[in-house]
């Protein structure tokens, strides 16, 4: 347990201070939205609220799961929860693997006191979910009062960890069992490598309620682990640093597969968010910007970052003439050649 706690804190430190963002892009910059000089809207008419997993969000934003399992993680999670509550965002917690090993660390994941009204997402890796079984996973969800469960898929990251998982067999069956037996919706979440069309078809058949595409272009977890590992693992992490499917392409693949999709992986600005929403995302997920805001100025800085994002999304919706998020996929746009190539091949 001490090694796991140390790794959690190391992840926070590395993501706060190191160069952990992919050099390859999300391809969201290839979505060119056309300016509407005559929007025929007022600011007060712009409504960025959405429905996600049966809950209404005041804005289409998920503060993505980052951490848990240590006292410092609790401070961060409470700050994130407070911002989510104020702005009407959803929020996820970090992997609850630590809770499987030591229930005493559950407090670092409990944020309902700060966010009684938010859509809260529990989080567990597919391998841990497979080994624990649906009943134990349901206990983890219930213990923090979560409304849904993210099952994260992080094969590339595990391969770069010195002590990471190496056996991923049975993960799809485990997800299908959870989707069938849990009393809350199950979301399949990648962790920076995106989803291919065939994978999405398998996940849809397994019964997931949605996917979080978490594509290439944001935080590279192979790069994060390369900062921490042995020389041999650092070399592998460097080789796999840019591995994955760009966020924009993975998002379109998910929508073509008929799955509601959260777009994460390199969402850094309101423009990134609105571009993703225009491609059909039902919401966008961000982690690193909020983590770094907290490192710079605590809970107040997290809230300020959330407010800037909210105002930016509203402004851009007005500038393309979209009164509602559902109008954004119909907003005029042009797609750049690199993204078109990913979508046409």
Written description of the protein model:
- The structure is a single chain.
- This protein has 345 residues and is of the alpha/beta class.
- The protein has one domain (2-344): TIM Barrel (Alpha-Beta Barrel).
- The chain has helices spanning 2-17, 71-87, 97-101, 126-132, 134-143, 155-160, 171-181, 197-206, 221-228, 231-239, 247-256, 270-278, 288-319, 337-344; strands at 31-33, 50-52, 55-57, 61-63, 90-92, 120-125, 148-153, 186-190, 210-212, 261-263, 283-286, 333-335.
- An 8-stranded parallel beta barrel has the order 4-5-6-7-8-9-10-11, surrounded by 8 helices. Strands 1-12 form a two-stranded antiparallel ribbon. Strands 2-3 form a two-stranded antiparallel sheet.
- The mean pLDDT is 95.
Brief overview:
With 345 residues, the protein is α/β, with parallel strands linked by helices. It has helices spanning 2-17, 71-87, 97-101, 126-132, 134-143, 155-160, 171-181, 197-206, 221-228, 231-239, 247-256, 270-278, 288-319, 337-344; strands at 31-33, 50-52, 55-57, 61-63, 90-92, 120-125, 148-153, 186-190, 210-212, 261-263, 283-286, 333-335. Helix content is 46%, strand content 13%.
């Amino acid at each position: 347990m001490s090694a796991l706690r140390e790794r959690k804190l190391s992840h926070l430190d590395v993501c706060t201070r190191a160069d952990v963002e992919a050099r390859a892009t999300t391809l969201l910059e290839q979505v060119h939205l056309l300016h509407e000089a005559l929007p025929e809207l007022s600011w007060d008419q712009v409504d960025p609220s959405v429905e996600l997993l049966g809950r209404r969000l005041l804005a289409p934003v998920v503060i993505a799961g980052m951490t848990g399992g240590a006292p410092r993680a609790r401070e961060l999670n409470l700050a994130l929860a407070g911002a989510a509550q104020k702005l009407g965002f959803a929020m996820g917690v970090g992997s609850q693997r630590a809770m499987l090993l030591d229930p005493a660390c559950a407090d670092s994941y409990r944020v309902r006191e700060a966010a009684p009204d938010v859509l809260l997402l529990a989080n567990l890796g597919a391998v841990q979910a497979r080994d624990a079984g649906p009943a134990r996973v349901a206990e983890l969800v219930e213990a923090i009062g979560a409304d849904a469960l993210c099952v994260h898929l992080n094969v590339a990251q595990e391969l770069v960890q010195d002590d990471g998982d190496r056996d991923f067999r049975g993960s799809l069956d485990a997800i299908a069992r959870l989707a069938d037996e849990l009393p809350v919706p199950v979301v399949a979440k990648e962790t920076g490598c995106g989803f291919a069309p065939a994978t999405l078809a398998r996940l849809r058949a397994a019964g997931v309620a949605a996917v979080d595409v978490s594509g290439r272009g944001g935080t590279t977890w192979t790069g994060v682990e390369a900062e921490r590992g042995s020389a041999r693992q650092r070399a592998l992490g460097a080789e796999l640093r840019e591995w994955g499917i760009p966020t924009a392409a993975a998002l379109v693949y998910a929508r073509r597969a008929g799955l509601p999709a959260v777009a994460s992986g390199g969402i850094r600005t309101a423009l990134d968010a609105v571009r993703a929403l225009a491609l059909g995302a039902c919401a966008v997920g961000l982690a690193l910007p909020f983590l770094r805001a907290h490192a710079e100025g605590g809970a107040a800085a997290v809230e300020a970052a959330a407010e800037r994002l909210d105002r930016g999304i509203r402004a851009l919706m007005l500038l393309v003439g979209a009164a509602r998020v559902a109008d954004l996929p119909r907003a005029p746009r042009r797609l750049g050649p690199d993204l078109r190539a990913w979508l046409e091949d």
